[in-house]
Amino acid sequence: MDCRLGCGACCIAPSISSAIPGMPNGKAAGVRCIQLTDDNLCGIFGRPERPAVCGEFSASPDVCGGSNEEALWLITSLETQTG
C-alpha cells in the first residue's frame, strides 16, 4: 500500500520521541508535526534530518484503513493502547 498523499495521520496521531527540526523534544500524540505542510505533506521527506522513525513507517491497510479519517482513528487507537 502506498501512502495517501495529503493524509498526514502518521504525522499527527503518534507521539515521536526523536528530535524533529523545529521540535527538538519530539512531539506528543495528537500534536501536528511542525514539518507537516498545509497540504498535509512532509516538509522534510527524503532529507537526512527527517527522524528515522518516520522513514521506517510504511503504510498498510491495518494502520491506514480506507480513508484519511480512518487512518487518524486507527493510529490514535494504536497510540492509546501502546503509549
For this entry, give a set of tags.
83 residues, mainly alpha, 3 helices, UPF0153_domain, Puta_zinc/iron-chelating_dom
What does this structure look like?
It comes from Shewanella salipaludis. This protein is 29% helix and 0% strand. The protein is built from three helices and no strands. The model has no long low-confidence stretch (mean pLDDT 95). It is an all-alpha fold and 83 residues long. The chain starts with 51 loop residues before the first helix and ends with a helix. The protein is globular, with a radius of gyration of 12 Å. It has one domain (9-82). It has helices spanning 52-56, 61-64, 68-82.
Percent strand equals under 5%
Termini gap: 25 Å
Mean pLDDT: 95
* Biggest sheet features: none
Helix count equals 3
The level of helicity is 25-40%
Record the SSE blueprint.
Layout: H1 52-56, H2 61-64, H3 68-82
Short recap of the structure:
The protein has 83 residues and is mainly α. Helix content is 29%, strand content 0%. It has helices at residues 52-56, 61-64, 68-82.
